[in-house]
Amino acid sequence: MQHVTTTRSMWGQFFSVSLPVFLTQLSLVLGSFFAATMAGHHGRIDLAGVAVGVNLWMPVLMTSIGLFMGVTPIISHLLGAEKTQRIPTIIRQAVYLAAAIGIVVTILGACAVRPVLDILALEPAVDTITYQFLLYIGLGIIPTFISITLRTIVDSHGLTRISLAIMTCGFLVNIVLNYCFIYGVWIFPDMGGAGTGVAIALSNTFNCLCFLVLMGTCAPFKHYRVFSWEQFRPAIWRDQLKIGLPIGGANFLEISLFAIIGLLVTTYGTDIIAAHQAANNFSNLAYTLPLSAGIATTILCGYELGGERREYALRYARMAQLFTIIIALLLFGFTYLHMNQVAGLYSSDADMIALISTFVPFAMCFIFADATGTPIQGALRGYKDVRFIFCISFICYWLIGLGTGGVFAHLLGFGPYGYWIGAITGLTAASIAYNLRLIYLNRK
Predict the structure, then answer these.
(1) b or e along 264-292 (b: 16 or more beta carbons within 10 Å of the residue's beta carbon)?
(2) What is the pTM of this model?
(3) What's the pLDDT tens digit per position in 82-121?
(4) How many domains does the chain have?
(5) Domain containing 50: what range?
């Protein structure tokens, strides 16, 4: 990663950073995609159980990821200002923090899962799969959090291709393990939907081991000597959390919006749960593009701002937004023309395909809202303007999104589709706010 000035070279650097990030994020989401499709073809009960489990797990995961993302702008700014001597300590303390958070989340999760499922009062078969899924996920929380932190550190150096290589291998491991544990291939037990939890935990552990080997053997990380022990430094934890907590809070507010909607639609029956989850899974797949552009923008904007080159940071933000809007429009058109084929990926039952098809158009509306807002949110993180992101997330996702969803679902009679309308409204409002904030910061 280096400072470039021409438009062509800036596009080249943007793609060199964002494309590996996109493929990495795609491998992560494809793991969930194949898990959902495999569970769906195993049975609708399996798909519903995994759906509820994912809706409970994702807010925890995304909140924690936000905490770890606090290290990204810190390292990017240090690299841009050529103050690399502090980076080894930053890396060590970030890993310590990830392990500490992993321990806390594991303990709290073990205590909370059963009471939460009792409150939901699911069908007994769905309840069993959900509980087992979350139990197996919990066994891999600590290596999962360490893996995410190390990947963030690697990406902060602009070495996104290395992350891509490791995450692609982890994705392949995940697919194989999903197939083995869901269907009971060879010596593996037939665990149905619960097997996806085992596959996720094991593949994340594999990723963690790969990143640890990378840190000890490859430049520039081996020169940092990150495995050298040093005492805990609360001041550095505090600096990371000062950025990470608002990011984690914003992630929680956004992902919990969809998680709460996923839990609210459980009152409409198992078929609606399964159809909703299928459409939501597809929207998550499409979301990888703006999310990747946002991560790349955080890295590039942080690097330029560290060198006090504000004009170039703004140019990267607008380039990322333009690119994602163009791709989103193309994807929207393709999906509209192949609606039934998309729904058929999640089930072979004709009635389920028809039901899933009614949710897919709403998922498509997510694409454009994410394309206009997510890259700018990434730029604001590069500016370390994370408190604003948190406040906007609360207002737009919980107040506007859930409020509008409740009105459409119950007062206007749209049922489960009303919640999707509310989520789209919240995402659109957040996108407008992020763009106005970026304009304000640069004028200021």
Answers:
(1) bbbeeebbbbbbbbbbbbbbbbbbbbbbb
(2) 0.73
(3) 777 788 888 888 889 899 989 998 998 888 888 888 887 7
(4) 1
(5) 7-443
